[in-house]
Amino acid sequence: MILRQEGEGDVDAIRTLTETAFRSAPHADGTEHLIIDRLRAAGALTLSLVAEVDGRIIGHVAFSPVTLFDGTADWYGLGPISVDPAHQGKGIGGKLIQQGLARLKALGAAGCVLLGDPAYYSRFGFVSDSALTLGGVPPEYFMHVAFSPVYGGGTVTYHPGFYG
Q1: What does pLDDT average to over the chain?
Q2: How much is the pTM?
Q3: Which end of the chain lies in a sparser environment, N or C, as judged by fewer CB atoms within 10 Å?
Q4: DSSP state letters, 89-150
Q5: pLDDT higher than threshold 90 for residue 162
């Protein structure tokens, strides 16, 4: 398996993969592929990593800038993340997350947030705490990993491309 930054010829494969992966997800609304398209069009895909096997994209993760209410800079949001249903449960999503977080750190990021299942994302260092919140979301599902022991707080806002 090769993990790499998306290339120009990957856009359609990423869109199809994301639609397929989220089709049966319980909390999906069917627009996850459009989030990636809008972030890309806005120049806000800080990282867009793919997992490739035999020339076929079987996984993807997007990272885009977020804004913290207190103005703390260099925070990013993870998501959407997609793995082809035929390849789920094999650690591909985890490898994409680990690679993405390592690349964010190398870029000088202060941290990363996500909305997701604590049982899964806690293995990558993500925690919930009241310092960072996302409006309308149960606090236990909004998680973050800080790359420094000192970080800001308040309400987090995702890039406008996230919302359509």
Answers
A1: 93
A2: 0.94
A3: C
A4: TSSHHHHHHHHHHHHHHHTT--EEEEES-HHHHGGGT-B--TTEE-TTS-GGGEEEEESSS-
A5: no
Per the CB < 8 A criterion, the answer to whether 67 and 156 are in contact is: yes
Check if the beta carbon of residue 101 is closer than 8 Å to that of residue 146.
no
Dig out the tokens for 8 from the structure: 């120009």
Q: With a cut of 90, say whether residue 29 has pLDDT above it.
A: no
Average pLDDT over every residue of 43-59: 97
Total Cβ atoms within 10 A of residue 66: 22
**In one letter, which amino acid is 141?**
Y
- Tell me what the mean pLDDT of segment 66-88 comes to: 93
Residues 6 or more apart whose CB falls under 8 angstroms from that of 78 comprise 61, 62, 63, 97, 100, 112, 113, 114
Residue 9 phi/psi, 5° resolution?
-85, 5
| Residue extents of the structural domains in the chain | 2-162
Rounded to a whole number of angstroms, the CA Rg of the chain reads: 15
